[in-house]
Amino acid sequence: MSKHNELQLYLASGSPRRRELLTQLGYRFEVLKLDVPEQRLEGEKPQDYVCRLARDKAMAGVAAAPSVLPVLGADTIVVLGDRVLEKPSDLLDAKDMLEALSGRVHQVMTAVALATKDRCDVRLVTTNVAFRKLDESEIEAYWRTGEPCDKAGAYGIQGIAGKFVSRIEGSYSAVVGLPLLETDLLIKAHLEQAG
């Protein structure tokens, strides 16, 4: 295999959105599909929770990877006040989340972790997202598209729900699931040290 298409890292995520974003950065990677429990600990702050999940995924990837390359893990949560909005379990859950987000500003926290067997570096990116007012019929219509089912906070900014967003302050790519700037800097720093 030539140096040009040599594998550089693994991505510990089955998310097609993260795969697309990492592809945009131009790194050569393979996806590791892992089953890492996502359970918030009692009293755990949202930022600690999302950083721990990213770290857990990256470290699980290191343990499972077929070769000794760095592993990138990431996690995204939606936070409204002191409430963490996970993936909805059903329509009622999604409605509850979207009604809570309606007409308000919330935070999307994405943590990205790059791990080897010796170390794990984590970066946290927080973005403020403002939603316009939503009515019940559009929330129900949105649920029927299937888009909110596997998304934190019951929405995907890169899809149909983009029309609900009146303002964003921070990293758009982090809201989608992988902050491009921070991820690129993390990988570059690691590759330079390893090189």
TrEMBL record:
<dbReference type="GO" id="GO:0036221">
    <property type="term" value="F:UTP diphosphatase activity"/>
</dbReference>
<feature type="active site" description="Proton acceptor">
    <location>
        <position position="75"/>
    </location>
</feature>
<dbReference type="GO" id="GO:0005737">
    <property type="term" value="C:cytoplasm"/>
</dbReference>
<dbReference type="GO" id="GO:0009117">
    <property type="term" value="P:nucleotide metabolic process"/>
</dbReference>
<feature type="site" description="Important for substrate specificity">
    <location>
        <position position="76"/>
    </location>
</feature>
<keyword id="KW-0963">Cytoplasm</keyword>
<feature type="site" description="Important for substrate specificity">
    <location>
        <position position="158"/>
    </location>
</feature>
<protein>
    <recommendedName>
        <fullName>dTTP/UTP pyrophosphatase</fullName>
        <ecNumber>3.6.1.9</ecNumber>
    </recommendedName>
</protein>
<comment type="similarity">
    <text>Belongs to the Maf family. YhdE subfamily.</text>
</comment>
<dbReference type="InterPro" id="IPR029001">
    <property type="entry name" value="ITPase-like_fam"/>
</dbReference>
<feature type="site" description="Important for substrate specificity">
    <location>
        <position position="17"/>
    </location>
</feature>
<dbReference type="Pfam" id="PF02545">
    <property type="entry name" value="Maf"/>
</dbReference>
<dbReference type="GO" id="GO:0036218">
    <property type="term" value="F:dTTP diphosphatase activity"/>
</dbReference>
<comment type="function">
    <text>Nucleoside triphosphate pyrophosphatase that hydrolyzes dTTP and UTP. May have a dual role in cell division arrest and in preventing the incorporation of modified nucleotides into cellular nucleic acids.</text>
</comment>
<keyword id="KW-0546">Nucleotide metabolism</keyword>
<dbReference type="InterPro" id="IPR003697">
    <property type="entry name" value="Maf-like"/>
</dbReference>
<keyword id="KW-0378">Hydrolase</keyword>
